[in-house]
Specification:
The chain is α/β, with parallel strands linked by helices and 247 residues long. The chain has 7 helices and 14 strands. It has helices at residues 21-30, 88-101, 121-142, 156-160, 180-184, 204-212, 227-246, and strands at 4-6, 12-13, 16-20, 38-42, 47-56, 60-70, 78-84, 105-110, 149-150, 154-155, 168-171, 178-179, 191-196, 217-219. The strands form 2 sheets. Strands 7, 8, 9, 10, 11, 12, 13 and 14 form an 8-stranded parallel β-sheet that branches. Strands 1-4-5-6-3-2 form a 6-stranded mixed β-sheet. Helix 2 (88-101) links the parallel strand 7 and strand 8 (105-110).
């Protein structure tokens, strides 16, 4: 298996890419790759380069580009996941596994019943930095060529006002809901927004807000999923259906 590494766009010079810092050290000192070995390099924007290592210096690795592909490892369905923020480790799991299955954008939601409240700008900046690093590592591991975007945390009401209700669904364990099979058999768009709640669920007011926008509410059956499970399973099902049956 070809190892994947990341680089800054400024590191690309014509048909070669010059790696430095931790990635160069990992290649030369940890994996002990050498001249002539093949690596895969991504900058998170959608291009993936298959390269041959042509030179190893003390603090850099020079790679010659053999082949470039666009959007390799990306899902056929562009999914935005808007998910209620849960405790740190659970939310990190959502970002990591969600990136692996192909989610292209995450929107952390500040919901009425959530245990996590983010109001300090400095704290938000630190979390966004960590969240981006989690997604970058997951993209490398899973063979993607894009890093998912992560929006600043916002309220459900603010987020709902920015989306097209006809390209969104809510996954919620409510009794009178739309069946997933019925929904996916009639959905033909190339992108979708998936909304899932935090550990404590959405409030009645938030559910009414979603209903007021005519956003379909989908059930997965009788079992209640944890927030970090639902946030991964629900987009995965939609991506799988799109790639397997609708091309």
């Amino acid at each position: 298996m070809i190892q994947t590494f990341t680089f800054n766009p400024s590191d690309k010079d014509g048909d070669r890419i010059i790696l430095s810092g931790p990635e160069a050290k990992h290649i030369s000192s940890v994996l002990r790759l050498g001249k002539g070995d093949t690596v895969r390099l991504i900058d998170g924007t959608g291009e993936a380069h298959i390269c041959e290592i042509t030179e190893l210096a003390q603090k850099s690795v020079i790679c010659g580009i053999i082949k470039t592909t666009r959007n390799s490892g990306e899902a056929a369905l562009s999914v935005t996941l808007a998910v209620g923020i849960s405790t740190a480790s659970k939310f990190d799991t959502v970002l990591e596994k969600g990136t692996e299955v192909g989610i292209c954008r995450f929107v952390p939601l500040l919901t009425e019943k959530a245990k996590v409240k983010l109001e300090n700008k400095s704290a938000i900046a630190k979390k966004l930095d960590r969240w981006n690093r989690v997604c970058e590592a997951a993209a490398k591991q899973s063979g993607r060529s894009k890093f998912p975007a992560i929006s600043e945390p916002m309220s459900l009401a603010d987020f709902i006002s920015t989306i097209n209700p006809e390209q969104a669904i809510l996954f919620h364990p409510e009794s009178e809901t739309t069946n997933l099979n019925d929904f996916i058999n009639t959905y033909n768009e190339s992108s979708i927004t998936v909304i899932t709640g935090p550990e404590s669920g959405f409030s009645k007011g938030e559910i009414e807000l979603i209903k007021g926008k005519n956003i379909p509410i989908i059930t997965l059956g009788d079992r209640i999923l944890r927030t970090e499970t639902a946030a991964i399973v629900c987009p995965s099902l939609l991506i799988y259906f799109k790639e397997s049956f609708k091309g």
